[in-house]
Write a structure and sequence with these properties.
Shape: globular
Largest sheet: 2 strands, antiparallel
Strand order of the largest sheet: 1-2
Structural class: mainly alpha
Length: about 350
């Protein structure tokens, strides 16, 4: 068992070294700023016990990627807010977090910055949070230089693409689990959607859609975080399965993979930060549902009893894995060109 752990550790470090000269985004043709899934995919393969497949997959995947961004204007601890959400400063953010992680324990940096970034969970269509989560899971297993740098890359991507969805949480709200709260979420009318091109084009419609403003307050995040994430991901797995035949597989799979990243982050976070992240993870998943779903929540409830998806879900203390079909869909990625990237 120990020998396999050492081998897996060497594999993920090798993969991260192979990807160290690539940027967080790439593009082709009219589609630019697509999220780099290389580090996330490599770590997920290792977690699934497929470490022998990692290096060949990275070698193939890397061919499409672009070069690593260079830092231009250093970000200071006192003036970081000026650079928040500035996609042109991804290189500056990576350099900033490299310095922070050199000077403090990675757990402390994580707990300092996740509260600052949580309200932008939708950033890069949740890929900032997802990439950070994969980095945290690998670091929790073993602290190495490539893994610390990967955490810097994940946090930097989250910060550079930071954007808030409309509707800041109030001090009080409903006390519903996600499986019940989704019945109170009103999707965009069909004639107000743009179900082609960029997901971000449709998400932008939520800025002028008042029914979405109170969505963040529908859920109760004060209880057991493991149960909340299990209910959240099961709810949106049903949404995904019900809508996949309509073709929105890329956007709607992130209703599941985005919140699933909270499982990877939560064991390292303070309770109050964890509760905050749960609320914004719910809000991000609900935003994708509002913008993209054809089959609505009211028609999903009758199918839930027929599902083979477990309602208990894994503990936040354990590693999370995704099905191979989910990873294939996620690896196909989508554009993150607009301010909701």
């Amino acid at each position: 068992m120990r020998e396999r752990s050492v081998a897996v550790g060497a594999t993920i470090d090798e993969a991260l070294e192979m990807l160290s000269d690539t940027g967080p985004e790439w593009g082709y043709g009219e589609l630019q700023a697509l999220s780099n899934h290389g580090p996330m995919g490599a770590e997920a393969l290792c977690a699934l016990g497929r470490d022998e497949a990692v290096v060949p997959w990275v070698e193939r995947y890397k061919r499409r990627l672009q070069g690593h961004p260079e830092p231009r204007n250093p970000i200071s601890r006192e003036e970081w807010r000026e650079a928040l959400g500035d996609g042109g400063r991804i290189g500056d953010w990576i350099a900033f977090f490299d310095r922070e992680l050199d000077e403090a324990m990675w757990q402390n940096v994580l707990n300092q910055w996740v509260p600052r970034l949580a309200s932008g969970f939708i950033a890069a269509a949740t890929h900032g949070a997802i990439r950070t989560g994969h980095a945290v899971r690998s670091l929790a297993a073993d602290e190495t230089t490539p893994r610390k740098h990967e955490l810097a890359e994940g946090l930097a991507y989250w910060a550079a693409r930071y954007v808030q969805l409309p509707g800041a949480p109030a001090s009080s709200g409903e006390s519903l689990p996600p499986s019940q709260a989704i019945g109170h979420v009103k999707p965009l009318p069909p004639d107000e959607r743009e179900n082609f091109g960029l997901i971000t084009d449709t998400l932008r419609r939520l800025d002028n859609y008042p029914p979405f403003d109170g969505v963040a307050d529908l859920v109760d995040t004060s209880g057991d975080a493991s149960h909340f994430v299990a209910d959240l991901t099961e709810t949106f797995a049903h949404v995904y399965l019900a809508n996949a035949s309509e073709g929105d597989v890329i956007g709607l799979i992130h209703c599941v993979t985005g919140p699933s990243a909270i499982r990877l982050l939560a064991p390292q976070l303070a309770p109050e930060t964890r509760a905050m992240l749960l609320r914004y993870g719910w809000q991000a998943a609900a935003a994708l549902y509002v913008a993209l779903a054809h089959e609505l929540a009211g028609r999903l409830s009758s199918r839930r009893g027929q599902s083979t998806i477990s309602s208990t879900g894994p503990s936040l203390r354990k590693t999370n894995t995704r099905s191979s079909s989910q990873k294939r869909v996620c690896a196909n990625t989508h554009s993150t060109r607009s301010r909701y990237t």
